[in-house]
């Protein structure tokens, strides 16, 4: 079993989103319903593994990263999905990941 931290919706107190790059979103099934418990991986611009979290009960996930090119890969019993994001500045960058079998 993976020890990835479970995620929630709120950004923790003390996080300065004018200095931090936050990648957040939801894992969604093809019908638009959230997928709880999906493993969400953050891969860098070379496709190398950087981090992994477990989506919350409402499908939410969050990573703290740097500006650049990132791939999000969601793995779940509802299916798998991939999405790419290129944040070019600090702030909250939202991207949902759709999964399907």
TrEMBL record:
<feature type="region of interest" description="Disordered">
    <location>
        <begin position="82"/>
        <end position="101"/>
    </location>
</feature>
<keyword id="KW-1017">Isopeptide bond</keyword>
<dbReference type="InterPro" id="IPR010814">
    <property type="entry name" value="DUF1416"/>
</dbReference>
<dbReference type="Pfam" id="PF07210">
    <property type="entry name" value="DUF1416"/>
</dbReference>
<keyword id="KW-0832">Ubl conjugation</keyword>
<dbReference type="InterPro" id="IPR008969">
    <property type="entry name" value="CarboxyPept-like_regulatory"/>
</dbReference>
<protein>
    <recommendedName>
        <fullName>DUF1416 domain-containing protein</fullName>
    </recommendedName>
</protein>
């Amino acid at each position: 079993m993976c020890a990835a931290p479970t995620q929630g919706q709120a950004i923790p107190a003390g996080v300065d989103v004018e200095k931090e790059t936050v990648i957040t979103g939801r894992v969604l099934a093809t019908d638009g319903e959230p997928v709880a418990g999906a493993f969400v991986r953050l891969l860098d611009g070379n496709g190398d593994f950087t981090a992994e979290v477990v989506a919350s009960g409402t499908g939410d996930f969050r990573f703290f990263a740097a500006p650049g090119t990132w791939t999000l890969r969601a793995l779940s019993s509802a299916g798998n999905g991939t999405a790419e994001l290129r944040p070019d500045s600090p702030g909250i960058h939202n991207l949902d990941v759709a999964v399907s079998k």
